[in-house]
Amino acid sequence: MATKKTAKTTTVKAAAPKAAPAKKAAAPKAAKKPAAKAPETEDLPLDVPEKPAAKAPAKKTPAKAPAAKKPAAPKATRVTFRVRAEVGSKVFLAGSFNDWNPTAKAMADKDGTGEFTCTLSLPKGRYEYKFVINGTWCADPECKDWVGNDMNTINSVIVVD
Question: Is the pTM of this model over 0.70?
Answer without folding.
Answer: no
